Amino acid sequence: MSKKHHQDKPPARVDKELEEFRTLMEPPSTFEDGFNWVAFLGALFVALLMVPGSIYMSLIAGQAVGPAAQWVTLILFIEVARRANKMLRRAEIFTLFYLSGAIMSTASMASGHFQGGLQVIWNQFYIQSDAAAGAGIASELPFWFAPDDQAALDQRSLLNPAWWPAIGLIAFTMIIGRLDNMILGYGLFRLTSDIERLPFPMAPIQAQGVLALSEEQEEESGKASTDEPLPEQENKAESWRWRVFSIGSTIGLVFGAIYLGIPTITGALLGTPITILPIPFIDYTQQTSDFLPAVGIAVSLNLFQVVIGMVLPFWAMVGTFVGLIVTVVANPFLYNFGLLHSWSPGDEVLVTAYKNNVDFYFSFSIGVALAIAIVGFWSVGKALISMRRKRRERHEDDHQMYAVPEGRGDIRGWIIAVVYLGSSALYIAVSMWLLQITDGAIYWPVVWVMCFYAFVYTPIISYVTARLEGIAGEVINIPFVREASFILSGYQGVAVWFLPLPLHNYGQMTVFYRSCELTGTSFWSIWKTEFILTPIILLGSLGFAHFIWQLGDIPGPAYPFATEMWEFFAANQSIAYSSTLGTFNVFEQALNGWYILAGGVIGLFMFVGLAWLGAPTFLTYGVVRGLNQTLPFVVIPQFVGALLGRYYFQKRLGLQWRQYIPVVAAGFACGMGLIGTLGIGFTFLAKSVFQLPF
Fold first, then answer.
1. pTM of this prediction?
2. What are the residue boundaries of the structural domains of the chain, listed by start?
């Protein structure tokens, strides 16, 4: 009896919150195909009407409208179907949600990272930028990045043959990237969800939003098909998601009008936006630098971060906040001991974070990530051994451990391996060919670096991210890996920075597959959608980029964000690019083996120590991730949301709170998305009225 108690008590304590999130939503017993003509028409609708608005908004305000496009598309198609006396199935709604998000992701930008048509527009700017010319990079850029022909650049036309090599490389990267992202993401989902049975706390947000829209249809359909109302209990069970979704949407509309709507509309009318709540955060680093040196302090006033804090596991947020406090306490000591030597009073929060990364956290983060990977692989191996032992005790076949739900649309493991190996080989082969035609020879150390990316780093970082997404809804990225590896390879030139590298993080796709499973959508419907989606994405984003570029120079007076920020992005990127010209070695300096070892040892010590103390699993991962100099402006409002959810709302609503809050979050995103779409429409209208040339 004591032996059983000794074996059962720790897991019950450690996995209590894990089990709560794991049982929040259960996958249905049947799966449906959501791919049909509705999905195809939805793809065309988003590509033709939403993509140009997203590109334009990115150039004007630097903000994407992805969530807006997704929810607006869903609501519009549901309303059209209702007026045609039809009802969209859950699988159809989720497929529409996926394809609209996939299209919009290629028509937006974040922190200087561009895709699709925006990538071409950025390339033409960068080759003409002052930063690239001043660093000696512009003359070294290869022709497959942008044409070195001023006449072609002045023409502002992607139909010019000089642009075809760059467009071809973008098309290749997009096609192969989407293929291996889908397939390897699926493989990681099988590992973390089916075998490890991780809860994926963020997955119910999308799934509950889809269910809310679906059940609202079902409720109205049920009422319309009979003269009598539905039974009270059945009506209540079917309609609560829609009511909660509507509450979240209303809150999102009100907050979005203040946070996004007023700045967008006033910017269109007055030229200078009126901002009530600072975007994206308020920076207090300069005010606190006297008593907190080398510590970035900032607070975001985005209410959605508070809502996300309510959705995420409470102990995960407590752990991340504890990790943040540890870095706040540790950074002044690291500064006084000379480890954070680049920081100087007056630096803002992002500058502080950048300098601290270069001085210490770049290497320390590598060690922390390795610790997470080691613990993750150990946990997987332990789980597999335990499962096999139980199967043998029950006289079951080992292959039953890998059994999947019937009709979900799963594929065999060898297909995952073949696709990934094939795509990685293509990346490396094309990169070698580009180096050959650019430099006249293949620089083999770069080839070995790409092999390291493909077969070591990408699988590890993808698995670590998948595991963190499955446990705490978190993502990990090790900064400056590409920069450090290129510098250490000894390559001379700039072509290497623009190669199609097998350097990816597929872990976030696991959340998508879990949401897909929770809504009862067959994976095959998503893969078939991807087949028609890729050419639509390519043609749509490139076509509208060509059209918008034809209207005038980019950056230019009509695009204040691009005019203000793109030169800053170019200057930052030029620092890294110039390092392989033999004139800059800050990234080589940032790679420190002792700091990597320290990060690994401290990370493992925290895992072992917290596990020995019986700490919740969420808390353990949150603390370890928080050691990676987590930016405060996101963590602080999320932690406030976690406290409100735990000690106010959950006390009032009990366990139902965990079912309500993902639906509230989905509705909130919908409301803010609608405001963003309204702002874009108003901006286009104002531009057509006030800025037409005569």
1. 0.69
2. 2-690
